[in-house]
Design goal:
The protein is built from eight helices and seven strands.
Amino acid sequence: MSFEKLTKELFLEVLECLDEKLRENKLELTLNIYGGTVMMACFDVRPATKDVDALFETSPQIDNILLDIAETFDLNKDWINQDIKEPLKYLRKESLKEIYKFTNLKVFAPSPEQMLAMKVLSARPEPYKDFEDAEFLINYLKINSLKDVLDIFNAFVGRRYLGDRQKIFLNYIGKDLNKNWEEFLI
């Protein structure tokens, strides 16, 4: 199965199956999800995601359960990954809320503000969805000033990580959303 077919509905089925397998093995798990999965599951911005970026405690039993789920749902063996660990190193703080609670599984997601800060930090070009996601989050949060975006970025990441890539990214977003933002001079 291609990751683009990991829809919200399938994601919820996978979580239910994961919870059942955890219960059978007398295990508990907390997943902190990030990226496209959050944009799909919490904001319905996209119909599907290409992977599940998450942080969680792992063990040989958990790894086997995740591989079993991959086989059950015809997903790649790395359908869920912890690649998000690297960008999370730059965060000053996290603002997570519980979005799903099962018997043995809890799923948390970042606040819209934290997601915006992370999207600005990443500032990746297409085919990544950082630009679209950041625009959505700015509108969702009803942000009208660059100062408000920078205050959020500073609270979660810190101004020292606001490099040229992030400044150019914010300049384009300001123009694209027709915001009357003062532009960064690069």
